[in-house]
Amino acid sequence: MTTGDTSGRILVIGGYGAVGSAVGSRLEERLPGRVIPAGRNEVRARRLGGVRVDVSDLDGLRRTLDKLGDVRVVVLCVEPEDALLARVCLERGIHLVDVNATRDLLDAVADLDGVAAAAGATGVLSVGVAPGLTNLLAHRAHEAVGGAQRLDVTVLLGSGERHGTDAVRWTVEGLTEPVTAAPRSVFLPGHGTHLAYPFPFSDQHTLRRTLGVPEATTRLCLDSRPLTAALFALRGTGLLRGEHRAPLRRTLTGAFSRVHVGADAFALRADAWRDDDHAAFALTGREQSRVTGLVAAEIAGELLRGQLPPGVHHIEQLPDLADVPERLAADGVRVLRRVGG
Ligand SMILES: NC(=O)c1ccc[n+]([C@@H]2O[C@H](COP(=O)([O-])OP(=O)(O)OC[C@H]3O[C@@H](n4cnc5c(N)ncnc54)[C@H](OP(=O)(O)O)[C@@H]3O)[C@@H](O)[C@H]2O)c1
């Protein structure tokens, strides 16, 4: 990313959260004075030179955008209820980078493709680690076998990382969704072999559509094998499901947000299968929230330079973003091809 070559500022909503603060600090290094952090806490936002924004108050957002006047990119680092916020931005010709990981929400934002194209705005979805880097690895594996018939994506997260509350809430909610595939034993570089369990990451749904792969499953494990086993045993009991279990899910979210046992390294792997052919790519790094923010910052920088086509796209649909993993080498992200096991 080069600096100072275009005008306009970048509004980072959720800008002092775990992901948003990584977006903000990377962009501030490269585009000083052009980042506006935002969240519901006005005092906190203002202390960072930002503004108050609540994603559930669209009139308030419109007024803020009018007042700021020169926002060209919004980076959304908190999950709104629906796609209306995305619509407000794209209709105004403001580019959008969305780190959300919920399938239905991503589908609703993807449906705004025509709105974005008409306004000359670009929306980029599946931004972050999973979805995000997983989509890019899966794309590589898919190409390596000449078009996959099946994709298996595996995500290992460090149980010692300070994951943001919104991300932990998302993960706990994911434990309530029906299970559609079997666990799989997978070798992950730097971590050995782990049993990973199907988990509702959005990438598996997106990849079926964007790559035309008939079967795709994403699985999750933690670096701690006992913790992984305990988490998925809890899912198996069904105790977390249902509206009446919301308090239990909130308690679990609070506990996971506070307790940090283990390391902060993560690993990703994508396996593509076509008849007898098989290709696997893996990626390792530290602090998935930070790396999610760095991916979002890379894309926000490209959008500010006007280098991506109008419309709404998932990351793997934009060839200019195919090398994002390599761009993060200096940040400790390492890509491996044809990993063993
Ligand atoms: N794609 C990926 O790989 C990936 C990875 C990690 C996380 N994520 C997603 O990124 C999002 C953020 O995760 P995180 O770990 O950064 O969570 P976090 O640390 O809890 O940060 C969320 C931020 O959003 C703000 N916020 C909450 N509700 C808001 C609202 N209604 N309006 C405006 N701001 C609001 C919070 O501040 P206030 O409460 O003060 O408003 C906070 O600054 C989550 O949706 C998560 O699923 C994606």
Task: Give a quick precis of the structure.
This protein is of the alpha/beta class and 341 residues long. The chain contains 13 helices and 14 strands. NADP nicotinamide-adenine-dinucleotide phosphate binds next to helix 1, helix 7, helix 8 and helix 12.
Task: Describe this structure as you would to a colleague.
This protein is globular. Helix 1 packs across helix 12. The longest helix has 17 residues, at 288-304. Helices cover 39% and strands 24% of the residues. The strands form two sheets. Strands 3-2-1-4-5-6-13 form a seven-stranded parallel sheet, sandwiched between helices. The protein has a seven-stranded mixed sheet with strand order 8-9-10-7-11-12-14. The model has no long low-confidence stretch (mean pLDDT 93). With 341 residues, the chain is of the alpha/beta class. It folds into two domains: 9-128 and 289-324, 3-Layer(aba) Sandwich (Rossmann fold); 130-288, Dihydrodipicolinate Reductase, domain 2. NADP nicotinamide-adenine-dinucleotide phosphate is lined by residues 13-14, 16-20, 39-41, 53-56, 77-79, 99-101, 128-132, 163-167, 170, 288-289, 292. The site of NADP nicotinamide-adenine-dinucleotide phosphate has 34 residues, from helix 1, helix 7, helix 8 and helix 12.
